[in-house]
Structure to design on (350 residues):
């Protein structure tokens, strides 16, 4: 798989350096939030604004978008055209998909504008559309030629967003271990500046995993789902931001890893002593795992609808042995639900 070049920049990049003939696909929120972006985007002769969100990725709406985009690009050359995609993960998934099929594939520059997209979704080459309520059912592997990380654009997001980004940052630092976790573990405060500080190292860590299994053939790439099994359930059930839900999901995965004797108690305690773990959210502490029967029934439905399940009643759960060492095990949906009950009991019994 092609390697994307990374550009870290304090300000929006020079437009002339992005390509010869350019089409900007951008989240309409950006010019409203940022006067600098509004001025910058005027330099593009071709641009297409979109509203971010899962609707943008709906395959039913795609023909209308591609019709307008093809019209916009009618006088461009397939060899010279570069799509510049500015926005969060939904705009990136949509724009990346467009780039992969427009004129049988044109050059692509991703400019992520949310922490989630800057840390995670802009890297690794996955593009996606949704089919009905089933997320990411259609897509291509199409790594960007260039990914531009603009500090002023990312830092301008509300501070609460940095905390959402932290969920994914913690995930990748546990997957990677080594220096990334050693450094992050010592942080006492998580702010936008902290997330920016660890951006390069966390992207590097994701790319290392992706390079071993670029098109998800060997299964290794699945470790990137650490924290995501229970995370997705809590995200859907409690309508939480993705990064917050993943933060909860990581706590669940860690406790289950100890229960299954994949992680030792002393390793668990060592992690808990790290200052940064003060930012780890616990679904138990926040009472998100009440074991009433209706909740378990709803969790079951959500676990079965998660696309990461393999056969109908089993899924591949990512456990952590220690930072830098994940273990994937096939588990049944019932085992996940039993672990929900067990963690709740354990909490009640102190
Ligand atoms: N391709 C992948 O590998 C991959 C990985 C993880 C997630 N995803 C996808 O990413 C999407 C979620 O990403 P997201 O949370 O970035 O979604 P998003 O694009 O929907 O953005 C979230 C919200 O932030 C707003 N926003 C964007 N930039 C902003 C800025 N600079 N300041 C203020 N607000 C801003 C958007 O308008 C939107 O309301 C999902 O569709 C998910 O499936 C893809
Ligand atoms: Zn995620």
């Amino acid at each position: 798989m092609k390697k994307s070049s990374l550009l870290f920049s304090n300000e929006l990049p020079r437009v002339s350096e992005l390509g010869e003939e350019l089409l900007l696909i951008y989240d309409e929120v950006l010019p409203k939030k940022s006067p600098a972006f509004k001025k910058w985007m005027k330099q593009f002769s071709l641009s297409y604004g979109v509203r971010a969100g899962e609707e943008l990725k709906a395959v039913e709406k795609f023909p209308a978008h591609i019709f307008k985009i093809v019209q916009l690009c009618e006088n461009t050359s397939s060899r010279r055209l570069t799509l510049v995609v500015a926005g969060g993960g939904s705009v990136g998934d949509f724009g990346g998909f467009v780039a992969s099929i427009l004129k049988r594939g044109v050059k692509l520059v991703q400019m992520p504008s949310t922490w989630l997209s800057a840390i995670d979704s802009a890297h690794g080459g996955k593009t996606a559309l949704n089919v009905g309520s089933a997320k990411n059912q259609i897509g291509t592997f199409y790594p960007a030629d260039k990914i531009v990380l603009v500090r002023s654009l990312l830092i301008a997001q509300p501070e609460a967003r940095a905390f959402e980004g932290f969920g994914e940052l913690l995930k990748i630092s546990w997957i990677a271990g080594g220096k990334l976790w050693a450094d992050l573990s010592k942080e006492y405060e998580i702010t936008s500046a902290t997330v920016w500080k660890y951006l390069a190292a966390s992207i590097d860590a994701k790319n290392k995993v992706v390079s071993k299994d670029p098109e998800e053939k060997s299964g290794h790439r699945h470790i990137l789902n650490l924290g995501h099994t229970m995370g997705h359930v809590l995200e859907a059930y409690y309508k939480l931001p993705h990064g917050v839900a993943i933060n909860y999901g990581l706590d669940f995965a860690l406790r289950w890893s100890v229960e299954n004797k994949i992680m030792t108690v002393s390793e668990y305690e060592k992690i808990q002593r790290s200052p940064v773990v003060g930012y780890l959210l616990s679904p138990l502490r926040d009472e998100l795992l009440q074991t009433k029967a209706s909740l378990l029934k709803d969790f079951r439905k959500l676990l079965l609808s998660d696309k990461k399940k393999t056969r109908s009643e089993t899924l591949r759960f990512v456990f952590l042995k220690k930072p830098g060492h994940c273990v994937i095990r096939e588990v049944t949906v019932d085992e996940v639900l039993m672990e929900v009950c067990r963690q709740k009991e354990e909490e009640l019994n102190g």
Remarks:
- The chain has 15 helices and ten strands.
- Strands lie at 5-9, 21-27, 46-50, 81-87, 107-112, 129-131, 134-138, 146-150, 314-322, 325-332.
